[in-house]
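Consider the following assembly input.
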Amino acid sequence: MTAADTLPKMLCARARERGGATALRQKELGVWHELTWRRYRERVRDTALGFLELGLERGDKVAIVGDNRPQWLISELAAQSVGAVSMGVYQDSAASEVEFLIAWSEAVLVVAEDQEQVDKILEARTGLPRVRRVLFYDSRGLRKYDDPLLLDLAEVERMGARRAALHPGEFEALVEATRPDDVAILSTTSGTTGKPKLAMLTHRNLHAMAESFTAVEPLAPGDEFLSFLPLPWIGEQMIAVACALRVGFTVNFPEEPETAQQDLREIGPHMLFSPPRIWENMVSEVQVKIEDSSWAKRAIYGWAMRKGCAAADLRLAKRPLPAALALERRLAELLCFLWIKDKLGLRRMKRAYTGGAALGPDVFRFFHALGVNLKQIYGQTEVSGISVLHADGDIKFQTVGLPVPATEIRIADNGEILTRSPAVFVGYYNNPEATAETLEDGWLHSGDAGYLDEDGHLIVIDRAKDVMTLHDGTRFSPQFIENKLKFSPYVREAVVFGGDWPFVTAMITIDFANAGKWAERKQLPYTTFTDLSQKPEIYALVREHVARMNEDLPAAARIRRFLLLHKELDADDAELTRTRKVRRGFIAERYRPLVDALYGALDRVPVETVITYQDGRTATTRTELRIESLAEAVAVPGAAGRGTDEAPRAENAPATRGGRG
Amino acid sequence: MAHDPHPSANLAVPAPEQPGTVERSDTARRLTVEAVSLSFGGVTALDDVSLDVHHGEIVAIIGPNGAGKTSLLNCISGLYRPQRGRILFHDAAGAAHELTRRRPHQIAAVGVARSFQNIELFAHMSVLDNLMLGRHIRMRGGLVDAALYWWLQRPREIEARRRVEEIIDFLEIESIRHHPVGTLAYGLQKRVELGRALALDPELLLLDEPMAGMNTEEKEDMARFVLDLGEEWGLTIALIEHDMGVVMDLSDWVVVLDFGKVIAAGTPDQVRADPEVIRAYLGDENLKGAGPAVVSAAPA
């Protein structure tokens, strides 16, 4: 057999080498079930041959929509084994989005987990004439469906098993025929702007990415990884598919999306790759729990955190720890950090990654204080997920690290980050215009503004079009301010405005669970999200945080007015992408009256919301939002109240130096 | 007993107001209530109530407050003993059990389980423990078995846990498996309460206001569980409910009680159009337009 240069070949290689080792693990009915590499390959074989029975051909597309389960990966690899292309669809997409993606990709088979997903496809079927079969693997609620499109995936696997018995060697020949330049997946780009695009990634791309990534990050075959983020996301494809097949570590799937946190603790994985949201949530959770605990515990936590932060800052500056601090740090580990890490499921964590968006320096420092080796990954869907990464022991909060092997990074004249590597995609599916805009002479145009620091680390400012120029001429990243706002456990999302306006304002959504707990502790009665968000006490709470944060910002970037939004931002309302990135442009448009009010004279603004229930009924609520002004915070012109509480933070504001290149 | 068991007749309800011409599924009878009367001192709670529940049906019992709905459920599950009449449960094997003379745990053992209007769970125990406890009636074993735990009792406990896990999976409560019931939101507690009844492996499930006090979303979830229990698990269900939207959407058959008497029975559409029901129960014409709209006929 030739080199394992496609994903199916990599699967067969792992099955040969370590057939009896655990490849996938899934909790079902409260018990973890394991799938060995040998069995994993067998099931891919049967499913692939079953797909052949259904008439799947080379180059066809197979759409997959569902939660993280073994069947998802098996379907993907089965499609690729016959030379077809898999496309993941975010499982929480609305029917119209599912229809758009399936129609655009011209998929002929759809693997849809359960009734919820099947309903979306059937609803859109008139727009999907190419779809020949819809395969499900959770039959609950589907008993009464007699649509001829529907077929149980288990039945497909049985068909394939019969074919495998009749034609031994057929699967092996198919896998052998897969070529590195075949397109392996169509990956939806996160689309903070407009409709999603489908990036075509070849086996060569994914293989190259896994190769460079594992060259600098020595993942081991015995490692455990928990796959709980949507599988269509490139980050999950990167680790759970490409790297897992390359290295042969175990991929675990949670029982249900809601149990991910508990399952994380049970598995105690060695690595984790999550967007900032997950890390921010963990910080909030710890902060809230500590706030709720006894005086003694709070005191120990406060002390341990101070020592942990001091030690982490020294270590990251590559300076030696004084013996006394080293001892104190060890004590802090025993008294506090071990237990927190255990609760969070991070106790065995060797390497933790964040990517997809910028993570605030405060969150970064928190995890390094705990002793979690959290590192930034930078990349796009179009480079198979990763191009730049923090190396072990070379971590700077404000940077995203160094390019991985075989990857070149260049800053264009306009400040845009360009990438060239064998992992760069071959183009957008059915969209040559977008491809031409993004790919020039093999260089990928990221749309991100950034620069390289003296050590060659890449610093990403923000999406180029989001970088705002403040009234005093400095360029500034709204995302940087938003991340600082989100460090408060009571803030869930924040949208900062300022570029075209005389000063900076923010639209903030509170964290309902944490703010609700806080209100309960203060014996503050509330009813709904809207009610809670408009309590003067909650405004005061957030205001305090905003005021404290303002002290760390240059005067021109300080938030002068903010409001607490009456609803949570939701991907179903297109306010967030499916990977939970804020779509700033869309929000500015949708909440135009609110933005105007933030820059107006009044401190109240009426809003009207239409709520759509699951059964299609709608209700309209009217309320009034308050706008809080912090005019006095900037009354002292220019005299920046530098953060005096702890280590200097000025270096954390990358964009103040922006505009290079 | 004044009435014969009339096993072959397909008369739906022998209430005098009801014409016996309504269409109904022709499956086997699961529950027969025959001329049951119950009074507390001078107060008559149930007055000559008769009704049938057929296999695989979802039957709703509705009526204003104090109409005797819960009393009827209590008679079926053995908490009350009616002064007159009898209640027969026909199990899947075809055997008829007279419930009127049995004690509640015996009734549970033949395959009739219920949930309560006010949550009756052990608040300090976990969801899992509450469900396992509900399972104990299906567990065998005495002193000897316990002594031979590894050989006899352990496989049974594993089997019980597996069954309970299936219920947890069905009700989608995996994430709260180990939470103490008392810390859960009300809607979730109602779901656990349903789970505890399911742990008995019933053939007939009695639900006393499964959706009371829930918000729209929780009601939709619960309605889906009730429908799935009928369709996927093949259970027969009798439920009391005030939410007319839910009743009309869910049930195959509706029985209306007023002042302890059956005043109407039929398909949801028939009952909706019955002038007697509109007069006695709703007092106005709301019911006529009751599509998905929620008409709360009685205050909680």
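Residues 121-201 of chain B form one domain. Ask yourself how this observation constrains the way the partners meet.
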